């Protein structure tokens, strides 16, 4: 079935505001049965919000969603306005959303996960036989040849992703929304996923495909919708889809001119020397690298390539094997974050809400936490005046947008939350600032503030190491890039060798091992 | 703050209702006893609240009360000096807290399990050491016992300020300063709220948590000794049993969340007062004493429900206000 004239789903003027950010600002979207529509855009462009609205997770502030929900194999029902109040409602109308993060209960088996919440039953008993049979059938469709009674905990991340897709398929979806489905898949798994998508297309299912991986988009999409800052930028038909066009529409500027930073790294005396660092997850690997004063070192690679492990091992969060870590020539041990902090390291963790800030606390208490003891009177009593002054100056320096430093962090926008997660370290003047996905879920304005800050920290002679999955960020901010692949460094790229292609080649295991 | 006002309102209500129902309730003698026992339980409650703020729980408080309460007369009867006895008992309480803290932090055991084992172990231990015999001071050590039994006249009324209340005031002030004005207190709240974020912020999480268990056991130990002084003779098998539940109830009534991260010392003191006034009211009003636990249980449940409803209402209003603010 090819796309007919009447769309299956029509969105007009979709608008969604969060405190401090307008996530969607009048977005239009048409989706036809049997097509794959790729929605692309930078982080914060509004893709995920739009999908959450279609999937019933969030509701629109303004605008309409019309949907011709019915069984696709029958003649199309006419479009009628819908507004889903819950995920269940959306699912019951045939719209299934696969989240970026895995949402599986890993203590249950595959079958139980696929039918979670809609278990077929006989009277009060769960009908295991039906679950088994139907799970097997769906698992075959996604190319996962495993028993439905396998525990999810025993599966690789890629396999778990396929189980998620199987779950979404099990509800006979008309519309399948995939948010970055391949971010943790291997190449084989990705190819298998593409076959599944092609299959679904033939069956008349409409697929919305969100991805940062433009190569994939090119391979799979019938049409591309580009969003920027919550607005439509434009559309590309099948024969117009090229890498460059997508990139320039997404960023609204040319990627090759991104570099504004001028490296001030002084390579003659390394600030940080790391030798044979291994982590619990990759015990076999040995990471070696140096960091110069004033240098910004980017860690690139696919999700799960071992970048977080390196940053957390340096900061003493995870146990380290036999690593040798030298700071300004003297060997140091970072057994726990406190030690690492005393040596002048600071980490802005990837998971902001769990690790970066205490979301239920006001901005002030969050900002003062790492320096509280240092600033305390007699190292015992909190010095309230210094606490207030400190939080004010950090808020000014990062232009945190909050009504006051008494505002609770969870009520701030993602960008401002992240500024707090970064800002809490500034007063310590870290010698090495480690950042893990520093701009994830952060709006464009806040991004610039964080980049500016990384730059100023480096300019002051400290070193910055950051891990990022955002190509643009890596290209723009790094003086040098280490590309990770399956736990080890697949290659090193200097500023003049940096390109998206070079990074992607190494990250996918295409380069020569260094 | 809103919580403390709420719990204070509850105290006032129960107090006034009982006083109206039976004027004997407000006699100086009764109030004096009420205040004495409120103070003793509040000391335990303050200890419990430190552990609860850290996100843990201490079920061993009652057994530690039994342990120290029986050890003091036992050691004195064996001829140990007063100073030596108090030092030894303090050491025991300190060791108990330290062990709990180490097991919870270094071995990552669940506080519930660790202190449940403590509850059983210390009770069995003291019953064995004392031969399960009643321990008492007889007519000796009156000076020492006046720490619990003594009182300070205030002149114009037959009511006198009981000595434990003076001890409680000192502990309350120190504990409130510790929780609200010191780095330790802030760290404790941070750990109770989000231990991971606290660790990622470079906080000495293990030490702070251990400190909370040590404080709790020390205060339980002190409470045990004072209770023993007050009662004069104590049963190793029964002294202090269930007191951990009163302590935890006082802490919860006083605004500690068992999820950790929040608590108010003055709230805990008022919470302990509510429990004692209720208990007293049951006696004074002639409610069958068999119903004692039922009444206390219902009142705590009602208090917690009201608190939760108020919290939701406040949250909703704040969100509405913010939404309006964002639109503007």
Which tags fit this structure?
heterodimer, A: 514 residues, alpha/beta, six-stranded mixed beta sheet, 18 helices, 22 strands, 23% strand, B: mainly alpha, ABC transporter involved in vitamin B12 uptake, BtuC, two-stranded antiparallel sheet, globular
Structure summary:
The complex is a heterodimer of chains A (514) and B (328). Chain A is α/β, with parallel strands linked by helices and 514 residues long.
Q: Can you offer a commentary on this structure?
A:
The complex is a heterodimer of chains A (514) and B (328). Helices cover 32% and strands 23% of the residues of chain A. Chain A is built from 18 helices and 22 strands. Chain A starts with 8 loop residues before the first strand and ends in a 7-residue tail after the last helix. About 1% of the residues of chain A have low confidence. Chain B is mainly α. Chain B has a single domain, classed as ABC transporter involved in vitamin B12 uptake, BtuC (Orthogonal Bundle), CATH 1.10.3470. A two-stranded antiparallel sheet of chain B has the order 1-4. In chain B, strands 2-3 form a two-stranded antiparallel sheet. In chain B, helix 2 packs parallel to helix 7 and helix 6 packs across helix 10. Chain B is globular, with a radius of gyration of 21 Å. Chain B starts with a helix and ends with a helix. The interface between A and B is medium-sized, with 34 and 25 residues.
